[in-house]
Write a structure and sequence with these properties.
434 Repressor (Amino-terminal Domain), Rossmann fold, 6-stranded mixed beta sheet, transcription regulation
Length: 343
């Protein structure tokens, strides 16, 4: 019977997994340990099965990025290029390429991921979103395939590595800014209710209103796409109400630009007639007219941390799940002012 990895491990007084990592020339193993293991291999006359080893340690040196919908739509929002820039900075440094997976529907996205995983095209995946009851997450857990979520999982939270902000707290703080300015008719414009980021930001908004003893009105809640056009549609809905809001919490900067444009069509100015606050602090928020008061969620850092976590999981299958919260900061600009005296 031939010499096995277990025999080498016993001779070198290390674990069999350490021998495997030495064969793969893993950077996680010290040079002293590598020398000890190689010495044991030589003494025992161990010759690794090259074909089996290539299958066992096969690496595509690629990370898959999963968009929430088609790239055409997603890349209209500056959040995605910026989070991808953060991911790319780490991937490039560690010699990983990026593979983007998109689709026009949830079914197309899922089929694309199945091809990536089963075809061995990527070593792990980063989901650039978190959706309620996501079949992609269920599939990856079942396959025990390395992945990281940017956002908060809606289930199995302790089993899934994720990188997020404290969106509930951030939304509560930015809503309180409007309340502190005297606003009582405050609306919320968010993305789809199946997205965890929308749910968390809505929850923070509602908590702020409740603690201030402000009545929460269903007609002041609008859910639409995280696009400029989504913001325009929301304004059309809110400002046909008998008592439209004087302040609006908007879950995304790009939507805010659509809100400003549509308010102008209604003959309303920000912040003189309506105060708005937003999220993400993308570059457009600083050059918009007026510049937006917004929550800086440090998008680049979200991407960089997600890439670090995934590569750790790829190189060490026993890496435990972790939760990383990237701090946020409110950037105060010129899109808010005190509520009208007659509110």
């Amino acid at each position: 019977m031939g010499v096995t990895i277990k025999d080498v491990a016993k001779r070198a007084n290390v674990a069999p997994s350490t021998v495997s990592r030495v064969l793969a020339n893993s950077p996680r193993i010290s040079e002293d340990t590598k020398k000890k293991v190689r010495k044991a291999m030589k003494e025992l006359g161990y010759h690794p099965n090259v074909n089996a080893r290539s299958l066992a340690i096969r690496s595509a040196r690629a990370i898959g990025l999963v968009m929430p919908h088609s790239a055409d739509k997603a890349l209209q929002n500056p959040f995605f290029p910026e989070v991808m820039r953060g991911i790319s900075s780490i991937a490039h440094r560690l010699n990983y390429s990026l593979n983007i997976s998109t689709g026009e529907s949830k079914e197309e996205i899922f089929e694309g991921i199945e091809r990536l995983v089963q075809g061995g095209r990527v070593d792990g995946l980063i989901l650039l979103y978190s959706r309620v009851n996501d079949q992609v997450v269920h599939f990856l857990l079942k396959e025990n395939f390395p992945f990281v979520i940017i956002g908060k999982p809606d289930e199995h939270e302790t089993e899934i590595t994720h990188v997020d902000n404290d969106n509930i707290r951030a939304a509560k703080e930015i809503t309180n800014h409007l309340i502190d300015l005297g606003h009582r008719k405050i609306a919320f414009i968010g993305g789809g209710t199946e997205l965890m980021v929308t749910r968390d930001r809505l929850q923070g908004y509602q908590q702020a209103l409740q603690e201030a003893e402000i009545l929460r009105l269903d007609q002041y809640r609008v859910h639409t796409e995280f696009l400029r056009s989504g913001g325009q549609k929301a304004v059309d809905q809110l400002f046909k109400l008998g008592e439209p809001p004087t302040g609006i919490v908007i879950a995304d900067d790009l939507m805010s630009l659509g809100v400003i444009t549509m308010l102008e069509e209604y003959g309303l100015r920000v912040p003189d007639d309506v105060s708005i606050v937003s999220f993400n602090n993308v570059y457009l928020s600083e050059i918009s007219k007026p510049p937006l008061t917004t929550v800086d969620i440090r998008i680049y850092e979200l991407g960089a941390q997600a890439a670090k976590c995934l590569i750790e999981k790829v190189t060490n299958k026993d890496e435990p799940a972790k939760r990383i919260i990237v701090p946020h900061e409110i950037i105060y600009r010129q899109s808010t002012k005190e509520a009208p005296a007659l509110e």
